[in-house]
Amino acid sequence: MREPPAPLDVRPLAPLIGAEVRDVDVARLDDEAFASVRSVLRDRLVVVFRDQRLTPGEQLAFAERFGEAEPPHPVFARVPEEPRVSVLESRGGEPLYTDEWHADTTFRAHPARGSLLYARVVPPVGGDTLWANMEAAYDALSTPVRSTIDGLTATHDIFGGGPYGRVSTYRDIVLGRAGGAARVEEIAAEYPPVSHPVVRVDPDTGRRALFVNRSFTTGIDGLAKLESAWLLGMLLEHAEQPAFQVRHRWNVDDLVVWENRATLHFAVADYAPAHRLMHRVTVIDDRPV
Description:
This protein is α+β, with helices and mostly antiparallel strands. Helices cover about 25% and strands about 30% of the residues. The chain has a single domain (about 10-285), classed as 4-Layer Sandwich (Double-stranded beta-helix). Helix 5 (about 170-175) crosses helix 6. The longest helix is centred in the C-terminal third of the chain and has 15 residues, at about 225-240.
């Protein structure tokens, strides 16, 4: 008789979000162990794996066990041999643009279901990433507020421009490159603004989560400008409370996987002029409902 698989060594990282799974090689997980990882991810929303040794191809292959990888990102650099692996890199005196609460690619009609971020180079101090649990944030709202926002939609735009986010962060990046103005027009045509529910429902669990963020959500549909700005600002401020958060201090070869459906994240921009290099893969989701 075959011995039952050893249980995963799972260590919660914060009361409401985050776990570290120890002593596994994600590139060699069997189906039973992978199913356990998926269960931990669904429960804890953010999972840390330390001491991985992944090629871009292995990172992509692991990501595709969760679902189809998204096409190449329209703004980020790419790994040449694996263009669906994005390169997130800052060095020297370059301005940093990651210190804003957001969910990945909500400007797409089908935003990322999840993301996998792998640390290749990390600064000696700083460069942490924080995540916030948007299911817990929704649950903590009062009943009247939940009743108000259930059924509302909000507009998401790749170039931002909302009242509570940076204006045109991606636009500025693209404009700084050769042929930038033409490329901005191409990106805008390829990714027109889309509307998503303010509260999305996970099709697997039925749980509800806030689905707005500072980087891409420009306003709540059907409301006057003042009403939209007030309600969106309140929801963002509420969602970003420390009680919903976990913070990760990166080491080289850390891999972090998270549920993009139900989290926001924030990369702390406190490490310039040090070098930070990460590889990211995002996984396609169904259209939010």
